[in-house]
Design goal:
Layout lengths: L9 H10 L5 E5 L5 E8 L7 E6 L4 E3 L11 E3 L4 E6 L5 E6 L4 E6 L17 E3 L3 H8 L3 H7 L4 E3 L8 E6 L5 E7 L2 E6 L4 E2 L5 H7 L14 E3 L2 E3 L17 H13 L7 H12 L23 E8 L4 E6 L6 E4 L11 E4 L16
Parallel strand pairs: 9-10
Antiparallel strand pairs: 1-2, 1-14, 2-17, 3-6, 3-20, 4-5, 6-7, 7-8, 8-11, 11-12, 12-13, 15-16, 17-18, 18-19
Length: 360
């Protein structure tokens, strides 16, 4: 069980998280209709206290508030859930409940805007980093979330910190992005199943039109006056696919890689495929800062990667310290009797390495 980080330190934690976050999310569907929600969790501002949380039915949580108290909106879980998060068990960044609803939080700087905190409404005020826990504990469908969202006031714990936005995925395959613009919750249907960070989701979708010339496979040959131009290798149809780690480039790259990925037979196969796709979004720590400006020594700015089989209720993850896949099988958890708990993602911060068999 992890010790809670004091409320007084939360503003610093959130500001640090927001300073260097670059998460990328994809959703895939297997041939057996299993829906897989996967994503990276990237921040290079500090080494975070990364945890997983198991929350039972009947567990009551109360929101932290900008005034430094934990006297905001209280909610009691209708659904048990499993989630991965950081620093405090309330701060679930990505999770799935027993109904198969998956919710993930993504950094959204400069474009979102929450309602200002008003102590008069403290009983309906919810910290943005607790929205994932609230949704997972209360709802089984996207429409239920949409019907309830106007009854809460989502705020920053630290009013100077950036906003976030959320991806919500049903086991049916429906995906939406929720953003709060000028204090108003806005939902976008997400037919492509990709999310990154700023700008707004609808901007990213429009930006895909700039890459209409890209396609999988080999380009050419093309007659070029008196000579013929030929591809030097396979994959030249995607020449021009952006490779940097900016949010617009990651959104485009993720959209093409997941769209052209060959569908797999089962949910488990598709989970494995999702990790291969997301390998393309591992952020080397040195790229997050100008030369000589990095203040932390970490293996990666991608601190963990999660992929959840929403149909079969299994959560898989690996971390920057250990890329061995670990899983949490929700089918083995009795959410009526299990105790609320949190645990570190890594028991030891080192890679699991095994000897290959050799006939000596």
């Amino acid at each position: 069980m992890k010790n809670y980080v004091p409320v007084i330190a939360i503003a610093t934690i959130i500001s640090t998280y927001g300073a260097a976050n670059a998460c990328t999310g994809i959703t895939l569907t297997a041939d057996d209709n299993s829906v897989i929600a996967a994503r990276t969790v990237d921040w290079s501002g500090s080494k975070m206290d990364n945890i997983y949380v198991i929350s039972p039915r009947g567990h009551t949580e109360q929101s932290l508030l900008p005034d430094g108290t934990q006297d905001g909106m209280a909610f009691t879980a209708k659904y048990g859930f499993v989630g991965l998060g950081m620093q405090r068990p309330e701060f679930v960044v990505d999770g799935t409940n027993e109904a198969g609803l998956n919710v993930g939080l993504f950094y959204f700087p400069d474009f979102g805007k929450y309602q200002p905190y008003d102590a008069t409404y403290r009983n309906k005020t919810l910290a943005d980093f607790q929205v994932v826990s609230w949704i997972l504990s209360q709802f089984s469908t996207i429409d239920e979330v949409k019907n309830a969202i106007d009854n809460v006031r989502i705020v920053n714990i630290d009013p100077t910190a950036s906003t976030v936005h959320w991806r919500i995925t049903e086991p049916s395959g429906r995906v939406v992005v929720m953003e709060i613009i000028d204090g108003i919750p806005t939902f976008y249907e997400n037919p492509i199943g990709v999310i990154a960070n700023s700008p707004n989701f609808d901007w990213h979708m429009t930006n895909l039109d700039n890459y209409v010339n890209l396609y999988p496979g080999r380009a050419g040959p093309t007659q070029f006056g008196p000579i013929k131009l030929r591809s030097l290798s396979n994959g030249t149809g995607l020449r021009g696919l952006p490779g940097d780690f900016s949010s617009p480039s990651r959104f485009v790259r993720a959209s093409f890689l997941k769209t052209y990925a060959i569908p797999q037979k089962t949910g488990r196969d598709t989970v494995m495929q999702s990790f291969h796709i997301l390998n393309n979004f591992d952020v080397p720590f040195g790229t997050s800062y100008n030369i000589g400006k990095a203040t932390f020594d970490m293996p990666s700015a991608t601190q963990w990667t999660i992929s959840t089989d929403t149909a079969n209720h299994i959560v898989y993850y690996h971390t920057m310290y250990n890329r061995t896949l670990r899983k949490i099988d929700m089918n083995r958890i009795d959410f009526d009797t299990v105790k609320f708990q949190s645990h570190p993602l890594d028991t030891t911060e080192s890679e699991t390495i095994i000897d290959a068999p050799v006939n000596w």
